[in-house]
Every structure is written in structure tokens, then in C-alpha cells.
């Protein structure tokens, strides 16, 4: 497979499945955010944000704390009005509408369940005052309770449920009014790891079933990668990259994205024609546009480093070596057992003072008898060695 | 952040949220309550302040006269100043007066006779010169003609000037400014004694294993339920001129500083005790374990762990007591004798001498220590909150016979003091003729036979307390909700917050006097409420606003901030969230606010003493007036009526709380 990895240039979503791509491209933008700014005095929390979200899409805003993701969500919800720019939802200009005039359901990290109302009354809260007959409300509540997997809990109070259950009730309450847009503000952060993984899956399922356009704010990359159709990576109030989870992971547009999502080795390097050089060696790299001699940063993910057995350089070596120029002889430093893989620190003459972190599967480690202090030849695959502007 | 500055915001208008109904209601309500605080607090205080800088004097150059001979030929116009220069009819120092000053025009005409055919003309030399003809106010530069008989009724009115003269007068009158020293002296001594006693009491409650802790807690709260006049009356019965234990004082008089200090300790004690007890309750067991493991002595531990841990509580208690004592009016009025203090001076200037300007000056002077204490207390309270939020292991006292006995003795002593005062007062109310006929009767409860308003005043007090509790709780809670739960409108909210905190720093006497100035002005459209129950309710709510506001804020802060956004996203109006969630969740706090307002409305004297009228006499004021008139036993009886009522109110409150909380707080039990 060939990848377009020109730094800073838009890429084609090559790894999106055909069906997914088709369905994403056909639907029109349901939520249109254009040139949104948010200023808190001198500080600009959002800078010229423009973004289209299609109907039925599950989008994650991902970024470190203070990156503006929650500010953007609150602007969409009308809770913190943007300073400049417009927001259209379903073709309607909602830019300055108060929350009550917009069409969304929202779930907060704190659940915000009304403590003095029973579960059923919490869910029914948004259904009242809508001229619905009582029986219809009751049956809708029952239906929703079943939908979130908590039938028969309607008469309990929120404090009697676990955190995960409370979050499901909050979700049921938000979707009770069948909103056009579902906003999730770090909905899983307050839960422990097991419950979180489980609920992640359930929320995604529910969203698919209902087909409701959903925006989730999170700082947890795993959450974003596993749930989102598209991820919006934000930093310092700007969008760093928008793309599917695989695009974001495999083809980070910026060094920040490469570093924030997953892990990456970073080396201060100089650009060459068709490659980079760092340490004491020149490598072939993913295509880039930097003139020879430009200081750049070369990056490669630990799991992209390929280990080869002895004799990888010999003429009769198996053809698994893709690019002989990118082979590197190293000594294994510390090895760290992380359950499903080994994390190793590799050093070598050709690396100069740098250390290369590489993750090897248990199988590979056993096959190649990896041990601390041992010698090893690794390959940095050409298309996985990414080049970004900047100096270390 | 460097990145934030290098990308400038594009030109254009900053977006504003379109108003929806909820937001409009919120802002409307906030404006209404802010207006309430402006009218009921800020405006009266402002008027009072400006009054204290107002001086009134007769400006004789502003008036011009013309006199005819008996044949009716007019002489040359001559100013009053010129006439006075010739005659020296009114000496210079007599020209200063107050806002009600009048000067008879005939004073400048020594040969005046109301029977003479001579005619007179008067006019102002400037348009703002005013004079009365009978009750009719005239002004302007037009000549007006009078015959001798009518001219008799012409009175010159003073003109107003702004200046520090009132203050100059105050500080050059030793009998007045000595009150500052007296007030501060009384307040400092009372503070030291009260905080010392309360610390021992709170320490015993928190740090010992003595018995009867609950009973002691109950007894310690009793003084809150009675007017501050009551300890004064009781002390007079015990140590006064005809007191049972007069000889114990060995010639010293209870009337004066001694009586004021003892009585102040009585009514300020519970306030100090609660604050210090709270401070001691949050101390951390681990500090004591650490001290023990370092083999520190009990004494050393006390000074290095206990006192530093409770220091904010101690400071806060000291300032609260200081403020309570220096601003209290009832007690020094009853037992102060010839010993003048600031709060009583205000009363004397206003009620006794009708010198409103000087009353305003004393008020401003009394405001200074009260505001200073308030500011320090707020600063300290903020620090204590930070201390509270730290995770700590509560201290568990271990039995220690000697220490527990000491604690018991200390608390028993204070309990005896409190109960002694109460029993004395009760006894005074029932005894036929102290100290000659000690048989019991209810004749002192026949209030209708005394001055002071009779039983009507008691019912008025109950009406006032009930109205204050109901209306006040609603206003305070809604106001606190607006401050705590509205987005945006920041400057408005912080102004509101300031206004809500202000009443704590304003002594009741000052507020009451400010109300006279503001509401008793015929030009004020709200003048109609002067002398009615309405003004008493408004004044009492305002006087006790801050504590209720803080209670409500604390409760509201514990509610999830996201309820309002959730309700809006569910398209539910704010009032529904408020009624179905906010109020039920905050019900315990709401009930606390209402009983606080009720009890204080029953016992307060200071603010309302200026504002009651014949039809709205109050029980607490009746105590004061009956005592003043020498009907001390009926005064004690009325004070006890207030006590019974507050006990009853407390019990009803307790019952109501239980029922309501059982119904609305079921969710609290897991």
C-alpha cells in the first residue's frame, strides 16, 4: 500500500472502508461551524475554527486540557457564546440562540442528574410540558430505560445507582426528547477503567442505533480512536487535524498530533532529497517538501520499528526487508514488559546519542531471542518515517 | 500564552446571546431584588451619609425687608444681614441650626407691635431663600406684603450647606466623643471575656468526654432567643439598687460598664461558641497523633496544634463579638446608666434631642469599627474555608477523668450563668413586688395596663416575625440563586453580591436612622410606607439579609452547576427546575434561613426602635419602653414572652423540618 504522507498537505482517506466513505460523503453537513473565535480578554481560546459535521456522524473533539475543545462544545450548545463566527445546525442559524432554542441533548461528566427526583422522573423531565399524555410519557420512559439497559430501576434515586448506571440515565434523559444533536462533555472521565471501556462500546452502539449526530469531548485518545467516526484534534485553540481514527493515527498531519495520539520517537534531523539524516546515518523517509539541509524533525512510532534476525543485510536475506538503506544495527538496552508487548530502548553507533524506543510483540521477541544487551538489526520502514518542520 | 496574542481577533461586533424567556425572567428578577437592596439599603445609607455632612444656618443676606411708616409710605429695602449688623439681634453663633430651624422675622424689628398699622414686605434676594408664613412655605425674589398681624407669623428658614462642621462639633463636645472610647472599651473587654469563655466551652464540647454535652449545647443557644435587653433587666434584679446580691459588688455599681460587659457576654456567647466550635471540630486527629509520637506534652500540643488550628475561628469569633457588642443598643440603654456608648448616643440625639444631623454623625462613626470588623472577618472566613476543604481525620477525644471533670465544671459554670439570668428574668416576671412581696402572680403579664403597646405589640411582633420569615426567605433565596446560577452579567452580579454583604456591616441603629432620613422625606414616593408594618418588615429583612444570603449561597454552591444547562437543553423553563429541583434540594437551608429571620425579628430592637408607630409597636420595643417607664417587671414579662415564642417557633421549625425533610429528602438516604 502506498500512502500520501506529505507533511502539512491534505491526504485522501485511503484506509476508510468503502461503505463508510460513501455514506460519509453523500450526507450534507448537518452542523456547520465557520470562523468561530472565542476571546477571554486577551486570551483566545478558539481561533478561527471552521468545521462541518455530517448528519449521523460521531465526532470526537480530542486534545489536551485547555486546548479549547470544551469551549467549542459549549459554543455549540449556546452555553458560552463564541465571540465571532457562526454556527448553523440543520440549515438553521443558531449562532446567538439561547440553549433552550437550540436542538440538542447534553450529557456532562458530572451526570447532573436531579438528586431528588427518581430515575423515571429524571428521564421524563424533558418530556413534560410537551402536551404529551401521561401514559405516553410513561411508556417512553420505560422504553428508554430498556434502551440503556436499566429496566426496573425507574423508582430508584440517582444516589442508589453506580456511576456507570447514572451516566446511562443521563444519556437516556438527553435522548428522551429525540434531539437532532447529542453533546457529550467528557462523559466517561469520572468512571473507573473497566466501566469506561464497557460504556464506550454501549454509547457507540446506541448512537449507531439512533443515528443521532453526536459530538463528544474527550482528552482520552483511546476513547476517541475507538468511538469516533472522525476525530477533531485540537491544540491551543486551533484544529490540528480532522480525520478518521486511522488517518489520525497513521498519518498525523503535525508533530503535535503524532505526539499526542499514540507515541512517537522524535529525532532532530536534516532533510535530504527523498529522506532525512539523523544520528550518523541517512534514511529514506516518507515524501516531504523540505530542501536539502533544512533542519527538521523525523518521527517514527515505536510499534512501526521492524525487527530483523541476523543476516538481514546478507545478499540472500529474505525479501521482508523493504528498504535496505533504512536498516540499523543496534544494541538492546532496557527491556520493559508491558503485558502484550515488550518495550525496548535501542542504542547504536548509527544513532549517535539518540535512543530509539521500539515495541516488539511477544512472538517477535521470542523468535529473535531478544534480551537486554543483545544485538539486533531493525528497519525503520520508509513510509512510517515521517518528517515534520521544526527543530528539536 | 504567547500564541494567544499573535493572532488578533477579526474585526466585527462581539456576538450577544439572543434573550429567551428564562433569561429575561432571570434578569428581571435580579433587577427587582437589586432595586430592593438599593432602595432598602444603599439609598437610605447614602442619604444618611449626606445628612451627616449637611449643616443648616440662617443666611441673613438672603432676605430683604421693606417697612412702611404708619401712613403707608415704604422705606428703603434693607437686608436682614444689615439689620442684624445694626441691632445685633441674633448673635453669630445662634445662626447655626438644624434642618427644622425657624427664625422669627420680627426679631429684626425691635419696635414691632402686631397692633401697629405699619406694613412689612419680605422677599428673598436669591430664588432659594425660603420662609414660612404660618405653615405655608414661600420662596423666591417676589416681594410679599403683610400687615403687622400677619408679619408675626413669618419665619425664616435656614439654608443647607455641605461641610464637616457637624463632625467638628462632635469632636469638640467631650460628652459626645468620649462615647467612642467607652464603646471601644466595652467592646474590647466583652470580646476578650466572651471569646475566652466560649473557647473553653467549645473546647470542652469538642475535646473532652464529659457528660451532658447535648444539654450544654442547648443551654448555650438560649441567649439567641431573647432580646439583648433581657440580661440587662435580669442583672438589675440581681445587682441593681434593690438587687438581691447587691452587696456582692462591694459598692461597685451594676449600672455602667460592669453591667454592659456582663450582659454583652451573655448575648454574644452563643455566637462566639458556634464559630469556635466549628473551628475546633475540623481539626485533624493526625496532627495530635504526630504530636504524641514526638512526645510533646499536652500543654505544648495545645499551643502548637490546637491554637494554630483554631486561630481563624478565634479571630472570626472575636470580630463577630466585637461588632455585636459595639452596635448593640438595647443592653446599654437598660443598664448603661450615665455611661454613654455610641449606639445609645444615636438614640439620644434622635429621639431625645431631635438632632438628626448629629445622630447621622454618630452613626457614621459607629459604622467605621463595624465595617472594619466586617472586612477583617470576611478575609479570615475565606481562609478558614480553604482549611475546611482539606481532607482530615476528625479528632476523637479519649476519656481523662481529671480533664473531663475540669471541662464539666467550666461548662456548668457558664450554664449556671445563662440559666441564672433566664431564671431571674422569669422570676421577675412572676413575682408580685420585688423584693418585698415574693409571691407569684401573672399581673405583670397584663400588658394592656402599661405603656408600650400592650398585648397588641406582642401580636405585632409575631406578625412582623412571620412576614419577615416568609417574605425575607423568598427574597434572600431567590436573590442568592440569581447571583449563584446566572451566567454573564458579571458586573451586575458582583454589585449585587456587594449589596447583599453590606447589611452585616451596618448596625441596626444606623439602618433605622437611615430609614428615617430616606422614607420620612415627603418628597420620596415611598413615603407612604413610613410608620407602617411594611417598613418594619423591609427594615428587618434588610438588617438580617447577609447571614441568610450566605446560608443560601452555601447550599446553592453544593448543587451541580450543570442543572441549568441540562434543563435548558431539555426545553424546560427555569421556574420548573427551580420549583422541582433547586428548592426541594435546598429545603434544609431555606428552613434555616426562615427560623433565623423569625427569631431575630422577634428579638431585634435597634433598627425598629426608630420606625415603629403607634399602630405597629413591637414586643421588643415594649420591653424597652416599659423598662424606661419604670415598669421593669412587665418588661421582664414581655421579654420572657419573646423567649417562649422563639422556643415555640424553634419547636415548630424542628417538627416542620422533620416532616418536610422526610418527604423531600428521601433521596439522601441511600
Structure in words:
The complex is a heterodimer of chains A (392) and B (670). Chain A has 392 residues and is an alpha+beta fold. Chain A has 10 helices and 20 strands. Chain A has helices at residues 18-26, 69-77, 119-124, 134-147, 163-175, 193-210, 221-227, 245-250, 255-260, 362-367, and strands spanning 29-40, 43-54, 58-62, 84-89, 92-93, 105-107, 181-185, 213-218, 230-235, 238-243, 265-272, 275-278, 281-284, 295-300, 306-308, 327-337, 341-347, 356-361, 375-379, 386-389. Chain A has a 6-stranded mixed β-sheet with strand order 6-7-8-3-9-10, with helices on both faces. A 5-stranded antiparallel β-sheet of chain A has the order 13-12-11-14-20, with no helix packed on it. A 5-stranded antiparallel β-sheet of chain A has the order 15-19-16-17-18. The longest helix of chain A has 18 residues, at 193-210. The model of chain A is unreliable at 1-23 (pLDDT under 50). With 670 residues, chain B is an alpha+beta fold. Chain B has 24 helices and 13 strands. Chain B folds into 4 domains: 21-52 and 456-613, MetI-like (MetI-like fold); 57-162, no CATH class; 168-441, MetI-like fold (Orthogonal Bundle); 444-453 and 617-640, no CATH class. Helix content of chain B is 62%, strand content 7%. A 4-stranded antiparallel β-sheet of chain B has the order 3-2-6-9. Chain B is globular, with a radius of gyration of 30 Å. The interface between A and B is large, with 51 and 43 residues.
